[in-house]
Design goal:
The chain is mainly α. It contains 8 helices and no strands.
Length: 184
């Protein structure tokens, strides 16, 4: 019961800290790091650890988040142009490439979370290493993307999931990225 209360509290803290959208990524990385520390039985309060990690990740996270925003705007623009302004033959040809681009972007985004928590400092190196990790081991990011989509669909029908949905996604990231050797 203590862990469930912590997940609900951490979900609430994440939502509060990511209200200015520019701090959403550092807040999510802090959420995953707090869940990692909490489930590895570190004797610190969950809310205190969240704020400690949020402060630690805020500068580097903001730089990375801005780069991710620019990339996502380019990808969304490409998809919109492809859907609304190109002939059907070209749309059908580009659809697999657009889907691959979205999965590649989300996989890099997920791997960057792991690299942040493990202590990588430079933004350029974060993206390069994340891309290499995605090519080497695509299973974990794809699993996280699938589970996130599942939580999104479930939260439409099961309203109680909204109270700890971000925490469940962060817990999934923790299990697949940090505990994979023990769980699988």
């Amino acid at each position: 019961l203590e862990y469930i209360v912590d997940l609900i509290l951490l979900n609430f803290l994440f939502i509060i800290c990511s209200l200015p959208l520019i701090t959403a990524y550092p807040a999510f990385v802090a959420l995953v790091g707090t869940i990692k520390d909490r489930f590895e039985d570190k004797p610190i309060l969950a809310w205190k650890q969240f704020f400690t990690l949020f402060y630690k990740y805020i500068k580097k996270g903001m730089k990375t988040w801005i780069v991710l925003w620019v990339l996502s705007i380019v990808i969304i623009g490409d998809i919109i142009i492809g859907l609304f302004y190109l002939p059907n033959e070209i749309k059908n040809f580009l659809l697999p490439f657009n889907l691959l681009l979205v999965v590649l972007f989300l996989g890099i985004l997920i791997n960057i979370i792991k690299l942040f928590i493990l202590g990588e400092d430079r933004v350029k190196r974060l993206f390069i290493t994340s891309f290499i990790l995605l090519i080497r081991e695509p299973r974990n990011p794809l699993l996280i993307i699938f589970i996130t989509m599942l939580f999104t669909v479930l939260s439409i029908y099961l309203k109680f999931i909204l109270f700890f949905s971000f925490s469940l996604i962060a817990f999934t990231v923790y299990l697949t990225m940090f505990k994979e050797k023990e769980v699988l």
